[in-house]
Amino acid sequence: MSLPQDKSAGMFGLRILLLLFLLPIYHAIIHDCNHFLNSVYTIRYCALTNISVTHDAEEVVFRSEYPRPYNFEFYDSRLTEIPRIMFTSFPEMQNLDVSRSQIENINKYTFEHAKELRYLNLSSNQLTVLNDFVFKGCDKLMRLDISNNRIVEVKEKALYDATKIDHLDLSKNELHDLDRDLFSKLNLLTYLSLANNKLSMLHDNLFDNCSMIAYLDLKGNRIHSLSDSFLRSLIYLRTLVIDNNSLTTLKIPPQLTKLFAAENNLTSVYTEDSSKSQLYLLMLSGNNLADIKNITTLESIVILDLSFNPIGPLNLTTFLRLKKLTDLNLEATKLGTLEHGIFAQQSKLRRLDISYNALRVIDITVLTSTPSLEKLFVDGNEIRAINYEHIPELFPNLTYLGLFANAWNCSYLTTLVRNCNRRGISVSPTKAYGEVSHLTNVQGIYCASSDKERILFQPVYHDDDNLDREKDVRLKLMAEKLSATGFDQDSVVELLEMIRLVNTTSNSQLEEVRRIALHTDRNCEVPFASGYQVFIMLILTTILVLNVAFLLYVHYNANARRAIDRMIIFRRGETASVQTHLEDF
How far apart are CA 446 and CA 380, in angstroms? Predict the structure, then answer.
């Protein structure tokens, strides 16, 4: 009689064991990929929304209809830590964006299986420290963005395992100091941003092994000096951004092409040998420069901003050597007059800002030597009249004339504005000087009937509208777009490098052919000279065809890859596993 009871007890125990076995699976949290990118179904893209992972040990499962996506983005998520299971579930992952995900910590083995990861965005999280070897496993990582966190310390060997990084953003953190060996393994680094931290000094040997750096952003720190040896070691440095620091003197290295050094305490800017300088853009607004003799010897400069410096009167030879200038900003530099001949060599000048000086009278004919002028700012002076009748003949390309905050009589200003409007010259203020709608004005330009009623407006510091610094990081944006569209980034970069080498070699060969054509036999007859020209044209045509063929090859491969991806048929069995097969091509 006890047998049935024993049997029922055994069945009950078996059920308990089965329940305990299935319990972990039952509690596993499953997150499915959303493959829509900008409303387009993209099989290699995976968006994960409203994900919450408070500990890496949580039972979390990430699933995708397509078994091999490599571009992942998290939206509106809370990831105290990055779940390691992602890299084992998707071993082909190349791009991972976990920005704004409230990440507080990165474990040592988080990226142990991230063997294919190329781009990692950790910006706008809550990280405070990067420990040693934290990126162990990221053998192919090229771009790392850790900006806008709360990082106070980066350990000496934090980046030791990510030796292929070429783009690193550590801006908007709380860094006070950097270990001298922090970047010692980053031999391929070309872009580095340390902007908006609390750095007061940089070790002279900090970039000894990073000679490839071309773009260095140090703005918004507390740096009071940069040694000559520090800048000299960066032989490929082309753009240096060091706005909003505490520099008093600055020596410009010859390899620089762009220098942004506004809002410092600079009293001296110089170069060792101006004849070797490659600088074509120099931004020095908001400093304490009273003497600019060393600057005006840099003949390569094309864009020069000296605004908000106590420079004072200029002599006739100030800009004599700056024949390439196209953009000159002299706003708020305490100019009293402009003499005839001061811009005698600036025939290429397209933009001139002389606003907010002490100019009571301006004779347009002073600018006779600048026929290419497109924008002229004379705002904020004490000008009462301007000989505008000469504008059409002197400046046929003028499109904008800044007239705000001068001593205009309303009747005179109305006539001046009408004249400009008839000639297609815009006069509406482009700078945010203040609201004038409640005051007497003509097209937003303040005027008064008498000096007693006149209101004074203060100058406004502004960034020039034609100096978009994002142009300096076009390579970064291009690479990200290539990754998002499914191209093999390494192949494309290699192909473009091949094209560049072909063009370089071809240019050398063409120069040799041209030299032979001109010097081997000066007594050759005209038909032979024509033959050389035809030969050169054939070579040029061949180079063009080769370049087009390369680009068509890239385009064909990308289309073929997308076509194959579309032919993958997905089948789900009862166990919810994914099975795939390819149709005949």
Answer: 11
